[in-house]
Amino acid sequence: MHARRFFVKPENIRDDQVLIRGQDALHISESLRLRAGDTISVLDGEGMLYDVVLESVSHQSARGKVQRVHECESDTNVRIALFNALPKGAEKAKFILRRGTEIGLTEIGFFSAARSVPRIRGSERHAAKVDRWKRIVTDAAKQCRRATLPKVSLLAGFPEVIDYCDGSDLILVAWEDEIRTRLREVMKNAGNVERIAVVIGPEGGFKKAEVELAEQRGATVFSMGKRILRSEFAGIVAATMILYDLGELG
To answer: Which of the two residues, 108 and 3, has the higher pLDDT score?
Structure first.
């Protein structure tokens, strides 16, 4: 039986001591009924795993001592970031976050495109959303036994996304009006790539001006076929196809 796994911020691992707070501490004490002397696995979300023996447990916190440190194998050999226009409804965003974590994305970001309905205003709401999204990817990473956490980001608009992706080897923008370039053809000719950004529009699609901007900045605009996929599903399908093509899935 595998030891229970918990993600802890790197700053809460100092020397050979580990501190767990919040819901995880409550889960350890109440649901799992773990006590001093029990062993758990702790991950820092950056690829390190720690075997930890609990020394004290309460509803508010759990403290333990590191017995052994492991460097985890990378989840994937290619870094794929998905930037999805913020969907309408919290469940759709949750779907993207959970499925993206499970297939091995290294970053999941949201933004408001020209035709997006949801808008985020105010730094407090911004921070609250990102914190909630981080909890979702953490829970998903525990479930699929992933060693690292995808970065979660929230960008203002489409131009900011294109700027943000500037360091990627390949920037892919899905557009339903593209009829020439298919994703499988793009990947066939991509060569050796290590960092890929996939950008998905809102339910109403990208405006032509947004697509033209992407092409001017070196992005590749592609089609996913004859059928129009829902925004929250399209990015996961595209990323899965890329991971399969690169030998990271299947």
So the answer is: 108
The HSE-up count of residue 30 (CA atoms within 13 Å, CB side) is 9
CATH code assigned to 79-245:
3.40.1280.10
**In terms of Cα–Cα distance, which of 1, 37, 48, 43 is closest to 24?**
43
* Amino acid identity at 90: A
What is the pTM for the complete model shown?
A: 0.90
Per-residue pLDDT of 58-90, as tens digits, reads: 999 999 999 999 998 877 889 999 999 999 989
**For the chain, which residues make up each domain, given as ranges?**
5-71, 79-245
pLDDT value, residue 120 = 65
- Residue 123 amino acid letter: S
Whether residue 119 has pLDDT greater than 80? no
Same CATH topology for 5-71 and 79-245?
no
Helix (H) or strand (E) holding 244: helix 231-245
As given in the structure block, the two tokens for residue 48 are 């390190």
188 torsion bin: left (phi>0), alpha (psi -120 to 50), beta (else)? alpha
Class of domain 5-71 as given by CATH: mainly beta
Residue found under tokens 């994937």: 76
